[in-house]
Design a protein that fits this description.
Layout (H helix, E strand, L loop, with lengths): L6 E7 L3 H11 L7 E8 L5 H8 L4 E5 L5 H14 L4 E6 L2 E3 L3 H10 L4 E10 L5 H9 L9 H4 L3 E3 L2 E4 L4 E4 L14 E3 L6 E5 H7 L11 H11 L3 E12 L7 H19 L2 H27 L4 H13 L7
Parallel strand pairs: 1-2, 1-4, 2-3, 6-12
Antiparallel strand pairs: 4-11, 5-12, 6-7, 6-11, 8-9, 10-12
Helix pairs in contact: 9-11
Length: about 325
């Protein structure tokens, strides 16, 4: 009889069958003995469901009729996982590759204290082909991207996250840094990225599912902050490691709009009135003008600036009373 906690791994797929297959293949190498993979297809039109069913008959697949967004899509998986008697639900992006013992470390830490609600791994960037040099040069032009694959694999994406409730500043610790051991300490953080987050059943039952009104971006921050409010900690576990390709299912314009709108919603929901007022003051005097300049220079002729402004307007209109 298996005495290890039961983990249901929820992998959300939207027109990403090749990435999802690579993710499932990597999960086939993990050492944790008590897990089930549940793929939630979010209305794919690329034949994902048929492809995955044929290739992985042992994997359970749930199908949504349309792209309901990151939160709503994952919520389908979370609810099914709870109905399958999951002790833990692991949300895992389909464009990730995992290390063999990552789940052992995440569960071990979560089991160590009843007041730990979420755990998350150290996440590295996984670049493909020549895009590695280009992507880093484009974003961090003052840093030279090494050609050596071993060095390249040590480029961090996230080592846990922090949230400044006064400035609305969300930081993925370690982002675009090379790992030289500076984030090897296990510690409590404000949030861990939803590309890989282990959630305890009791916490989900108490605080609820992801807030689907966000549609995409910042649901993970909101979820972990709700957990904090209910007395549950979020812990970054550096021994657990995965690799993440990142943002393959979303355009830059969508990221600009949703991340802008959702920041206002997050601040309205999770901060005090005074904190929100300070955020508004700093946003409109400093951040907004600089963001317009950067977006305009980077994107040139597309609609990113227009969507940034639309995100502000929709955000100021107020968030739906949810969560």
């Amino acid at each position: 009889m298996n005495t290890r906690p039961r983990v249901i791994i929820v992998v959300l797929n939207w027109n990403g069958k090749e990435d999802t297959a690579e993710c499932i293949d990597s999960l086939g190498t993990i050492m944790y003995p008590n897990y089930t993979i549940l793929v939630v297809d979010n209305g794919s039109t690329d034949g994902s469901v048929e492809f995955l069913k044929e290739r992985y008959p042992e994997v359970q697949i749930a199908r949504n009729n349309s792209n309901t967004g990151f939160g709503a899509g994952n919520n389908v998986g979370i609810e099914l996982a709870l109905s399958m008697a999951a002790d833990y639900v692991l949300l895992l992006n389909n464009d990730t590759v995992v290390e063999a013992h990552f789940l052992d470390y995440l569960v071990q830490e979560a089991e160590s204290d009843g007041l730990i609600g979420f755990t998350g791994p150290k996440i590295y960037r996984l670049y493909e082909g020549e895009s590695a040099e280009y992507a880093v040069w484009k974003t961090f032009g003052w840093r030279k991207m090494p050609l050596d694959p071993v060095q390249r694999s040590a480029l961090l994406h996230s080592a846990g996250g922090s949230f400044n409730a006064w400035l609305g500043k969300i930081r993925h610790k370690g982002a675009a840094e090379f790992d030289v051991g500076q984030y090897d300490e296990q510690k409590e953080v404000d949030f861990v990225e939803a590309s890989c987050v282990l959630a305890k059943r009791a916490v989900i039952k108490k605080i609820g599912l992801l807030d689907a009104t966000y549609f995409a971006y910042l649901e993970d921050v909101d979820w972990c902050l709700r957990g904090q409010r209910a007395g549950y900690a979020t812990v970054f576990v550096p021994q657990a490691t995965i690799w993440h390709k990142g943002s393959k299912s979303s355009s830059h314009e969508n990221r600009v709009y949703y991340s802008t709108r959702n920041m206002f919603w997050l601040m309205q929901k999770r901060t005090t009135k005074l904190q929100y007022l300070v955020f508004l003051l700093t946003f409109f005097t400093i951040k907004a003008p600089l963001s317009v300049i950067v977006i305009a220079a980077y994107q040139k002729k597309n609609k990113a600036v227009e969507l940034f402004v639309k995100g502000i307007i929709d955000g100021l209109r107020g968030t739906p009373a949810n969560g």
